[in-house]
């Protein structure tokens, strides 16, 4: 039973991360038309296929975009890129809350809510902390 719960948490977390990073990817393709790499999980034990890197050790992900594309963008485009993942998690959380009445939906709501809160706090390597670093770097760059 414990193994089943951990496996369920692991699989739901993978879905949350993929949705989150897919939102960043879509916005990056719309704004800059180019993405260097999409990483789902850790660099440890990762397999790279074209521009996608996958790892069974899932603690996050990222979408890499060339710095010169970001540096030549306005601040609203950069904010849109960094907040798109949290927004996608929020939309899917609302959909689950409204339509999926099961343990899977409840688990998704809890883990997605946790992901939204963590990524909204400017702590180590969250969307908000990286956004603040990029804005600070842009002020020096321009």
Automatic annotation (TrEMBL):
Pfam (any one): Peptidase_M50
An individual GO BP term: proteolysis
GO cellular component: membrane
Keywords: Membrane, Transmembrane, Transmembrane helix
Cofactor entry: Zn(2+)
Family: Belongs to the peptidase M50B family.
Protein name per Swiss-Prot or TrEMBL: Peptidase M50 domain-containing protein
Species: Alkalibaculum sporogenes
